[in-house]
Amino acid sequence: MPDAPIGFIGLGIMGLPMARNLMKAGFPVVCYNRTSSTAQALAAEGAKAAGSPKEVAEACPIVITMVTDSPDVEAVALGPKGIVEGIRRDGVHIDMSTISPSVTRKIAARLKEKGAHMLDAPVSGGSWGAQSGTLSIMVGGDAAVFQRCLPVFKGMGQSIVHVGGNGMGQVTKLVNQILVAGTMNAVAEALVFAAKSGADLEKTIEAVKGGAAGSWQLQNLGPRVIKGDFAPGFMVKLQQKDLRIILDSAGEMHVPLPGTSLVHQLFASLEAAGFGDEGTQALAKAHERLAGVEARVKG
Ligand code: NAP
Questions:
Q1: Whole-model pTM?
Q2: 130 CB less than 6 Å from ligand 1?
Q3: Cα–ligand 1 centroid distance for 23 (angstroms)
Q4: Is 285 a catalytic residue?
Q5: Pocket test for ligand 1, best of 14, 37, 56 (most atoms within 8 A of CB)
Q6: CA 128 to CA 130: how far, in whole Å?
Q7: CA distance linking residue 120 with residue 138, whole number of Å
Q8: How many Cβ atoms are within 10 Å of 213's Cβ, its own excluded?
Q9: Answer CATH for 172-291 from 1.25.40.340, 3.10.180.10, 1.10.260.40, 1.10.1040.10
Q10: For 158, which of 22, 134, 256, 289 could close a Cys bridge (C-beta 3.0–4.6 Å)?
Q11: Across the strands, what pairs with 64?
Q12: Per-residue model confidence as pLDDT tens digits over 42-72
C-alpha cells in the first residue's frame, strides 16, 4: 500500500477525477486548486488541502500538475509560492497538462538546479478516461525517475509509455492531437455528406465504424453529433490551445501542416460564433454551415 503523499495541483475536469483515482488506489493526496472551494470539496473526501503549490511540494516527494496552458504551468511551478520554492532534493514534478515542449524543458532545467526532477506526462482519453482511470499517458524525462513514478501513473492510466527525455512526452501528445483533430474533421465532413445524400445517419455510423474507417472519434463523437449533443468532454477552446502549440512548434521547425492549419481555422470559426466552450464534436457545425445541411437524426 503506498504511503508517501502525492501532491495534486489543478482540480478541473481532468485533475479532480485523476486525484480521486489516486486516493482510490491508496495514495494519500495533498491538493491545491486556485479556486479553493474545489480543494475543500476533495478535502471532504479525505485529501489534505494546502495553501499554495510551494506548500504541496514541501509536503510531497511527487507533485502532479494538471492545469491549462504553458503560462499556467510556469506560474504554479516557477512563480511566487511555486513548486520550485518548496520542492525537496530528489523530488519529482510530474506535469500532466498539455503544454509547449520548450516551456517543459525550461521548467525541467530550473528543477534540476534544485536537485529535483521533472517528467512531462500529458494524457489522452478525455474526461471519460480520467474518471475510469484508463488514460493513455506519454512520459518524457529520466528513465529511472519514470520507473519510480510508475505506480502513481498506474493509479490514473492504462497505457503508460516512456517515450524519451524531457519534452518528448509533450511532443508525442502533439502528434496525438494532430491525429485527433484531423480525424474529427473527417468524421464531421463525412456525416455532413451522408446527411446531404439522404443517408440514415445511425445506420451509416453502424455500418462503417467496424471497418477501415473506424476511429475513436467516429465511435464516441459521431453519435453525439447526430443527436445534437455538443456538451464538452474536450472543449473547442482547449483543442485550439493545443493546435496553436502544434503550429508554433511546426513553424519553428519549418514543417508545413496544411491539414492541421485548416482544422485550426474551422475551429476558429466556431469560437467566433460563440461555441468555444462546446465539445470538439461541434466541428460538425462548421461543415454544416458550409453545406447548408444539418447532420441530425429526428426525434
Ligand atoms: P479545466 O477543467 O479548465 O481545469 C483547469 C485547471 O487548471 C483548474 O483547476 C484551474 O483552476 C487550474 N488553473 C488554470 N490556470 C491556472 C493558473 N494560472 N494557476 C493555478 N491554477 C490554474 O481543464 P481540463 O479539461 O481539466 O484540462 C487540463 C489540462 O489537461 C489541459 O492542459 C488540457 O489540454 C489537458 N487535457 C484535457 C483533456 C480533456 O478532455 N478535458 C484531455 C486530455 C488533456 P480553477 O479551478 O481556479 O480555474
A1: 0.94
A2: no
A3: 20
A4: no
A5: 14
A6: 5
A7: 8
A8: 12
A9: 1.10.1040.10
A10: 134
A11: 8, 94
A12: 999 999 999 999 999 999 999 999 999 999 9
